[in-house]
Fold this sequence. Notes:
Elements: H1 4-14, H2 17-22, E1 37-41, H3 53-58, E2 64-69, E3 72-77, E4 81-86, E5 91-97, E6 102-108, E7 111-116, E8 121-126, E9 132-136, E10 138-143, E11 147-152, E12 155-160, E13 165-171, E14 180-182, E15 185-191, E16 197-204, E17 209-213, E18 221-223, E19 226-227, E20 237-238, E21 243-249, E22 252-258, E23 264-269, E24 284-290, E25 293-299, E26 305-310, E27 317-322, E28 330-334, E29 340-347, E30 350-356, E31 362-367, E32 378-381, E33 385-390, E34 393-398, E35 403-409, E36 421-423, E37 426-431, E38 445-450, E39 461-466, E40 474-476, E41 480-486, H4 489-492, E42 496-499, E43 504-507, E44 512-516, E45 526-534, E46 537-546, E47 552-561, E48 564-573, E49 583-589, E50 591-596, E51 608-617, E52 631-642, E53 647-658, E54 662-669, H5 681-687, E55 688-691, E56 703-706, E57 712-717, E58 726-741, E59 750-765, E60 785-789, E61 801-802, E62 813-816, E63 827-833, E64 840-841, E65 844-847, E66 853-863, E67 868-877, E68 881-883, E69 886-888, E70 893-894, E71 899-908, E72 920-925, E73 940-942, E74 954-962, E75 969-974, ...
Parallel strand pairs: 14-20, 19-24, 40-46, 54-60, 80-84, 83-89
Antiparallel strand pairs: 1-38, 2-3, 3-4, 4-5, 6-7, 7-8, 8-9, 10-11, 11-12, 12-13, 14-15, 15-16, 16-17, 18-21, 21-22, 22-23, 24-25, 25-26, 26-27, 28-29, 29-30, 30-31, 32-33, 33-34, 34-35, 36-37, 37-38, 39-41, 41-44, 42-45, 43-44, 45-46, 47-48, 48-51, 49-52, 50-51, 52-53, 54-57, 55-58, 56-57, ...
Helix pairs in contact: 1-8, 6-12, 6-13, 7-11, 7-12, 8-16, 9-14, 11-16, 12-13, 12-14, 13-16, 14-16
Amino acid sequence: MFTPILKRTLSLLTGIFAFLVLLGFSSVFGKETDFLQILYKWEPLQESDGVSRIIANASHTPTSGPFQDGNLLAFVVRKNVLVVVDCATQKVICEKAFPEQCILHGLCEGYVFYYAGEAVDTQVLSLETQKEKVFPGNLVLVAEGGFLVTNDRGVVHVFDVETEECLLSEPVPGGGQPVIAFGKVILVPTQDAQRNFGGYLGFLPQDRKRFPITHLSPGVRFFFPERSGHTWESRNSIPSTFLPILCQERDAVFLEFLDEAGEMVQRFPLPDIVPAPRIVPSPLHFFDAFSGKMLLAIEDETETFHFFIADTREPPISLGQFTPRGKTTLYGAFLDDDTVIIVEEKGPKETVLHAFSPDGRRVTEKTLWPPGLSARRCRVVGGKELLATQGHLLLRYALPPGELTGVFVFPEGYDPSERVLVLRDKGCTFLSNRFERDEGIENPMLVAFDISGPGWPLPIELVEVSPHGESLSEVFEDLPTELRFHTLPELEKLLSVSVKEVSITKEEERLTFTWLTPKLQDSTPKVTTVTASLGPAQRTFAMTVIPFPNPLYLEVQTYPEGEHLVANWTLRNNAPVDIDDLRFNLETKNLQFVSGDPLPERIAKKEVIHGKIFFKYLPSTPECQPLWNGYTFLVSGTLRVTSRRGTAEASFDTPYTVHPEYAFEIQIQQDPERPWSYLFADDILRHLQVFDAAGNNITGNLTLEKRDDYVVRIQGVAPGFPSTSLPLRLIWEQDWRIFEFQARLGSPKTRIVAPLLRGSWDISFAFPGNTIQQVVEPWRFTPPRFTLTLPPNAHPVADFLISEDEMHYFRSVAFDGSASSDPDGVIIKYEWSWPGSAIIEAREFAHFFSVPQIMPVTLKVTDDRWQTTSVTKEVAVDQRRTIGGRRLTIPPAFARQNSATYEVEVLTGDLENAGTDAQVFLALYEPEEREGVRYGSGVMRLFHSGNPFERGRRDIFSVTGRAIENLDHIVLLHDNSGNKPGWFVLGLKVKDTRSGTEWVFLPNRWLALDTGDRKTYGKFTPVTDLYPAGIFAEGERKSLNLVEASDTVFILPEDCTRFYFTCLDGQRDMEVFRQDGRFLGRQSANPAWRKREPPYLPEDEWGVAFEAATLTRPERFLIRTRKGTEVREKTVWVFPANWANYKNEALQAVVLSALEGKTEVFLCGKTVREYLAGLNPDVVNASLPVIDYGVSAFSIFGVSPDDYLTDALSEGLGDYLTNQKSLIQQFGFTLGLASSTVDLLDYLYDALNWSVQLPGVVSGSVAQAYKVILLQELGQNDPTLRQITLLLERSKTLVEEIIGCFESNDPDSCKGKLATLRTLTVGNNPFSPTLSDHAMNYEALGVTDCEPVRPDYPLAILLSLAASNVKNWRENGHSIYRQDALLNILPHDPVTDTNAALDVYEPLLQTIIQTGSILINVCLLSGT
């Protein structure tokens, strides 16, 4: 099943725009939709504009900003275009292009603050006059009233932006003391005579008044507040008329308040609080202010936050202590009724809302849904609601209860976490086409949308139902059914699914829902609704519950074993559930059960059970007629199993041969009144003749000898059975006579010469007893003796045929009784009957029937001595049909006793008006056994509940008819009914489901009255040469009878000797080339085959052949198709049959083979380390090395891989990354890292972005020696980077060896090398959530261990750890600045210096991680 990370990865591969469609967005974003308005859009930069790939990619979003001031929104696009939009009027009020880069730093009081070009002067643009003003120095902050504060080379200036007057210039010390603004006052640090910190002065720019702040003297240890969650431009601007200060005197801590005159107006002790011992960042956090109150938090040395409601009138009200996961995992604010809310991240998956009354009582403590909500992405709007973002979700909660009232889902490819701005009930954000798709967003843009309702339509589709009927909306009754939904990754674990009055179980690991469907009443389908919910947002899916199909399959095979017949049976349960109520029934003919394996009472889902049954031969009712010279009869049986889920049965039959090795004796009694009046044996021998059942004189073939005076022994016959004895006729004759009879009504009388029988007997010669085994040796068998009395007459033999002469074929059913005979005379009368008919007297006649059916037809014959005999045979007949003014009927055939199920596949041609609305009928026929005797299936209608026989459609039917033993031909007919009865049938396949035998037919013709031969029926014979196997171009089908490892990777099966390249589009020419460029062959366009459908093709349309014996190694083929000037190309890989058990390795080898000659990419870690270690600390500007291996996340592989390979790569990576965050957190606890900063996976996600290349050139500068010190340390001594470098170098060798095995067609060696590469890259237990399970041994893999005392971990873990280290260093600074005392001689900020160095190091690490991600993706690839 799919994990959330896999879904995110799949979404990256398929693009963001499919989800935009789900969300209801317009495909043309220049138009408004119901909930999306465009405020501004721009053209992103291209590399052709002379910028690097990094800059081009970054220009899909604002390159600076945005900043918000009321309804105004300011931002910079394309590096140098400043834009200001009035979101209320939806108008652009400023769009200004600069010749150089523009960096935006603020929007306040109708002015825009920014840098243009070098960050030397601060520029201000008046939105009212559209005039620019330039002020010296870097921007520090913008105070209340729009007064600008800058720092020009150590001198702080305060300017009146409107008049451009400099109101204050004050040199400041270099100790890092901040400039603070609160209310109308600005606090500026000053210098003493030695240029050290000399305290603070206050400045009121409105009054041009400055004054000293005596309370903030150098001897006082105090901490200014920092605004939590704000940018550096505003973090020191406190929106309050009083300034809270944390003051520390020895062991006492006080919270003090300064007014705008700089006087301390209130002081409150804070016992039991020891602030964190640092100045930057400050341990005093300012969260919000309202109605004269402030929400403050003090961070102590244990990283615990103490929250207070504070004002100048009364002591602070404590709200308690909070120990979140990190410093950015808290959010606090006032509501409009003075209630305070605090959002706390207590763990990776738990975010809690706390609400307090104005007097500090807790009124709410609730865990927010969904899990994993980030506190820094929360904000209070309107004083009553909380807005939060998570991934692609924008969520609205009612406060203070925390009830979720709105869910808004953003399109895939856009994360609103940092970019959603709120103006009343409107949200604003930026959308961009980062993946350069052809559809969807044409240009990046700023959009607005309504967030007042419960949410937008949920972007969710039901993509998998297991099991299901003909469509996903059909499910089976009374069955656990798995449901899987396709949606954004963030939604998957948050979704809840329900069905009215039925429970649904969610499987978290597989992200599926199990629904126990209801049991139907009277097997009537029932419609119900499945509801998918995300908070208050829902989407429903209509589902139809249908009866459960028969899941049982039973097969029986027999073989002789000594004097027994053994039946091997196999029972298969195709259902996804266990069946525990099995009941077996066994029926046999000519067999007697002896013993067997116990028959099971239950069978598990998908289980296959085998067993044996032993029989001995029991001749009771064999279907054959015993023959004197030996014969074979069938023994048969039917094994049947039933359950509440379904039934299955399997029949079997096998021949048993009786040889002519037996004898019998006769004596003829002359007169029954005289028991001892026997003929002498000599007279018997002189006049006796023996005839078989067919009337053949077989006397000369037998041995007749005298046993005594009255007994004759007849030897050389095969006996029958007690129930079906061998029929023989014995004739003892002397005279002849002539008589006349009338054969048919109205015919002349016929003179017949016939023997006058003095003796004629039908005897039945059979085995004694009831089993064949009682007569083991014929010569030990006591021959039976028959005492015969001269009979007066013998019965006639009745038999009939079905004529196929041209007069009746396809016109009527013609019966012929001429096969009947009379052993001792002639037949003079023929009487025909069947159920519901009158008696017909004739030897031959034709008849029409009213309905298709299996009809028992009886022929009764009378001989010249008025003896009668009857025979009944089942005949398959059709009804009389009038089609096009002609009377037609499907030809009749005799029907065998057993029934059979046939699977029929019919392919209608892809021609205009090729489909039909008529009823279609099919009949199967065996070869003629003899003239007039042919067996068939009977007439079967091809029908299903859909709309079959449409143009170009492939339909499959299951029909039941009588069994046939071998197929000679079929008859196909339609009744010309419906709107468009004409039909072009292209191909047809019939499969006997019992034996699995298939026959393929290629009619390729019209069955229509208005075209072709103007017939709606035809007789077709199966083709002898079938399309064997092939790879297809230009169609949805990819191959036939080959192993598909992916859409473009195929493996030959073992029995494949030749395969073909076939272009399914008959209107295109196709050329095939081998990988060395040799031309393999061409398949020309053929308008007669507009759409080719293997296997329904004649041999001359099979395409380009390739002999499998010539494929000695995996080989790549280029398939090029052409139609006019349009040319398309497709590349496929074909593997020899020895790769059949190495499907996954074949996929991995195909990916890695693209690295042939490019493995130097894995030396990138070595290059980075050598560069960093060689930097000179005295260098002021140091250029970084060019790292352009021409490789990004799989861009070296040319065109994107096929969908199957993409999915396989994504699935492996997605499952693997689900464990990584917890694993690195385990490192954090072990090594002291800040677990709250672990966000490691974005690099690896980007590795699946096929269309975005890695940075081609990474460049920058090192401005201070402190940067170079850290960079040198990382290049020379960082153990993680050193170990990554060694693992990549070893990977280079392994990849080269794998490519060698691939080239030499050695799958076994290739598998071993890939296993080693997998261990090195992701370890032996990549999906374990326990860190110790990922430990390995570097030396066993041929890699030097840089830190023998620490556990060894695979490359993927080390890459994630390196990224985690960077995030930790950015927050806390690198330890080198604390360990080296010389670095503390000059004042500096370790965190600032660390981040300056990491701005150089991190792009290089990203390149290494992207390179390693190639190996991670390949090693986690898993074919299915």
